[in-house]
Amino acid sequence: MTNLALPPLPSYTSATGDVPLLGDTIGDNFDRTVARHGERDALVDRAAGRRWTYTELAAEVDALALGLLRAGIGKGDRVGIWAPNRAEWVFVQYATAKIGAILVNINPAYRSHELQYVLTQAGIRMLISAPSFKTSDYAAMISEVRGDCPDLEHVVLLGYPEWNELAESGRAALADDRTRLDAAQRDLSADDPINIQYTSGTTGFPKGATLSHHNILNNGFFVGELCHYTENDKVCIPVPFYHCFGMVMGNLACTSHGATMVIPGPAFDPAQTLAAVAEERCTSLYGVPTMFIAELADPSFETHDLSSLRTGIMAGSPCPVEVMKQVIERMGMTEVSICYGMTETSPVSLQTRSDDTIDQRVSTVGRVGPHLEVKIVDPATGLTVPRGEPGELCTRGYSVMLGYWNQPDKTAEAIDKARWMHTGDIGVMDADGYVSVTGRIKDMVIRGGENIYPREIEEFLYTHPDILDAQVVGVPDEKYSRRAGRRRARREVRGGAHGVDPDAGGGGAARRAVAARVLHGQARALQDPPLRAHRRRVSDDGHRQDPQDRDARDVCPDAGDRRQSMTRQSGHDRCTHQAAGGRCGIRHVRYSSGESAPAAWNQCRRLAPVVRQRNNGLVPIRLRGQVLHRVRCAVSAKSASTLVGSSPQIVELAGNTSPPRNPVRCRLAGLDLGNWFGDAVVVLGP
User: Fold this and answer.
1) pLDDT of res. 114
2) Percent of the chain as helix, strand, coil, to the nearest 5
3) Does residue 280 have a pLDDT over 70?
4) Rounded to an integer, what distance in angstroms lies between the CA atom of residue 553 and that of residue 563?
5) What is d(CA 313, CA 336) in angstroms, rounded to the nearest whole number?
6) 3-class SS of residue 60
7) Pairing of strands 481-485, 473-477
8) pTM for the complete prediction?
């Protein structure tokens, strides 16, 4: 009998799980938790010094829900929330869910034109907003755009009389009769849309991913299940609520298990977060890798008792192995989990388990979650590729969004007829079903019918001791249609102290010769294994799953109408600005101490790009509607231990002042791109 070769195992996997999917609406599930755990702590707002049991939280939620009904808000109406993390955000999240109003999350970093777009595109009837946050005057921006938003009927500012009246109106009615609220809640289906989250695109305005009760309740529940949450857990949530990381993986994971939500502050601060964990005895901590790096490096770290920590979630970008080791050893998070997802999938599709090895947690994004399917397909044919081969990562199941709000054409581009969500990410599945995300499908080069993945070439280039960073892109070719090569005006080899610019005169050969003159001492100093491992495991996740995905656009108060953007932390209220020749004449250098000085630029630029933080070094950053381009970053890191053992001293981003012919993605090579959490300055000339 002839021995036939067995076909290769396809890159497909699914998971069922011992626990069935939930069929509840969010409001009904919340009520069940209140009935079981009414006297246990539900919510702690550290900045406000307030805390609520589940019974007390239910009273706040029900009063606000009835207040919304009395204001004319009902099932299907859109209610916007524009605020940093605070208890009222949670009240609004669950109150809207109880009456079927669709909550629209608005990024706290938005400026006026983006706010207007979301208010108009979603048809928001009521906007609930903080009056201001840091240097952003939300009230003024709302007044600026309100006349151009025909659907906007109500504006409620938190802490103002209209907020108190809304809540008190419901509270008074609730005391007499809650029949109206109960009837509204009974009229809901788990498949109804309940949340719109706008995803950041590389060009144009963002799309509104529309999610149902079934989508996000189950995703939060099963993320919590894989973290082994119970009513005894307390979860510290320093990641923003406007993102799935905060409101789904955080809030819904907690309320579906009776756990406690702990808000350490309105925005991330490492010392506040550590204090919250220690004083509230949190068992779980969330964050992106740079947040954990900042916590480990905080001067107060050793003064906090973190012995209560057991688990947590790290997402947004791959975690360097040295950071993972310290999170486990110094913070006690032995069961820390890595998650992968995107807003359109509620968000988590893949997650590591508590018994996975450190290598599996840092080199992969885990295995498929319960009741979900994942496959890797050839982007040209749509056919599933054999395991071990790269292709586009697709996911299917309860978590896939209903669609993009009022954009059926965009929905059809993302979700195929079989309901597979095409993520746009390049992934590889191993024999055990673990998936590694290695890039973005749009970066793939097709050469004479052959698929070439830039990351594979970049990985090889990184083995050369003189190459600090590498980018491979496609360029037109008469014979092959497209071939791998350098993008025009990009740095093939980044030249340490001198920052080689291929645009600076001469022909291609001359530019390449100049680019090859790398300072050997500096190059070798930056080849420490943790640094190289970090930059070589970067997934190009676009707008995916990173609370830092959007740009920071707190406009520099000294810059007038010049295009500048700056991320601020506490105490970083202003940047030094000088004008020269009609454009910004200073390279803004930001110190962790809050000092800003042009003299430090020479010190900063000598260190060159150190780490490619994410997205193959490319990330979309928007400034007043314009996409910045050719942005470089320098980080002061003398060694690998600086990155994992202490805060980065300097982060500087400088944009090319020439206007782009077409919008393109920013090129970054820095440690921290954090518009929400970091301290970076982006400067772009007029």
Assistant:
1) 93
2) 30, 20, 45
3) yes
4) 10
5) 6
6) helix
7) antiparallel
8) 0.71
Please tell me the distance from the alpha carbon of residue 641 to that of residue 1, in angstroms, as a whole number.
61
Q: What is the DSSP string of 46-94?
A: TTTTEEEEHHHHHHHHHHHHHHHHHTT--TT-EEEEE--S-HHHHHHHH
Helices (H), 128-261: 138-145, 161-176, 179-186, 213-226, 244-246, 253-255
SS3 297: helix
Looking up tokens 């240097």 gives 135
Where is average pLDDT lowest: 328-337, 402-411, 524-533? 524-533
Q: Are 435 and 363 in contact (CB under 8 A)?
A: no
Spatial distance between the Cα atoms of 126 and 641, rounded to a whole number of angstroms: 49
pLDDT at 488 over 70: no
Statement: residue 102 has pLDDT above 60? yes
| Mean model confidence pLDDT for the chain | 75
Give the separation between CA 355 and CA 311, rounded to whole angstroms.
12
In this model, does residue 493 exceed pLDDT 50? no
What is the Cβ-side half-sphere exposure of residue 572, based on CA atoms within 13 angstroms?
25
Task: List, in order, residues 6 or more apart from 486 with CB less than 8 Å away.
Answer: 471, 472, 473, 475, 492, 502
| The pairing of beta strand 445-447 with beta strand 284-287 | unpaired
Alpha helices in 256-407 (DSSP H): 270-280, 289-297, 321-329, 358-363
Burial status of residue 478 (CB atoms within 10 A of its CB: 0-12, 13-18, 19 or more): exposed
Which strand (E) or helix (H) includes residue 212? strand 207-212
Residue, of 153 and 637, whose pLDDT is higher:
153
For residues 146 and 51, the answer to whether their CB atoms sit within 8 Å is no
Q: Which two tokens stand for residue 17?
A: 């799980």
Q: From 449, 451, 505, 446, select the one nearest 476 (Cα to Cα).
A: 446
Q: Given this model, what pLDDT does residue 483 score?
A: 55
Residue 335 in tokens? 């069961």
Give CA–CA dist 258/389, Å, rounded: 42
Please provide the distance, in angstroms rounded to a whole number, between the alpha carbons at the two ends of the chain.
76
Confidence band for 558, pLDDT divided at 50, 70 and 90: very low
Peptide bond into 347 cis (omega under 30): yes
Label residue 455 by pLDDT band (50, 70, 90). Answer: low
DSSP-based three-state secondary structure for 460: helix
